[in-house]
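Let's do one together. I've listed all components of the complex below, 299 residues spread over two lines.
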Amino acid sequence: MDIQDCGWIAYPEAYERQKALVEKVRKGREDIVLLCEHPAVVTCGRLTDQRNILVDRRELSRRGVEVYAVDRGGDVTAHGPGQLVIYPIMDLRRHGKDLRGFLRKLEQVAIDLLREFDIVAKRSLGRTGVWVGQKKIVSIGVGVRKWIAFHGLALNVNTDLSVFSVIRPCGLDVTMTSMREILQRPVSMRDVKKQLAGCLERAFGCPPPPRDAGESYASSGRA
Amino acid sequence: MHQVVVPELGEGIAKVTVACWHCRAGDRVRAGQEVAEVATDKAVFNVETEKAGTVQRLLVREGDEVAVGEAILVIE
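Okay, and this is what the predicted structure of the assembly comes out as:
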């Protein structure tokens, strides 16, 4: 598995990058996971109830928050600075052609990752995502085209949680939280990305990364 | 005549919701073309037609719940 850190990237640009990679993975490229941080943006999944966007579009635009309708599952969500967005572009034919199983594995990746930071997170029966107590810390929504998955999960690391005030996240009356809020300190995004590599490998059945993987986060034998 | 059906999407998924159509009656479609998106939990899956032809009829509407294996589209 290949992990590519895109750093700070506009939402539409990351989307285009995903679409191009979906084609490559379909043609046999190895799975790749993109790591991103987006400027504040609201995205609507295919089953979005527009009433879950609580602020007028013009007001959002005035605040510099664009709204995009996208081809993923789920309702409305928000991205913003301090949130780690993880896009696994994976060929699900190599992972059992099991949509629910894939969602559960993505949750497991986040649960394992949070455990590395001494945060006990869990699933909530019947609701995709990851929770700490009653608060939600990870949102998940994927698209699948020719059995290649894209879109993915958003983990609140140091997210300014006010970004969620303009929506009802995932159409739920839920309070969002972040690693920073739980740990009462800023969390190094770099450390989170490093831990993530191992968690992805465990969930998706690839060999563990070499200890000297260095800064690339890459975990397969690619030089 | 060819019917496009909702494919098997893995364990525990018996029904999906038609999220949106990518074709209308009268459209010409190629084999392998995406004709609809169906949603389950937090995943959206693009359904393709195996055969080329002209879309005759959409059998369900956006927002409808359909069972895996059920036909959603007729192509001739």
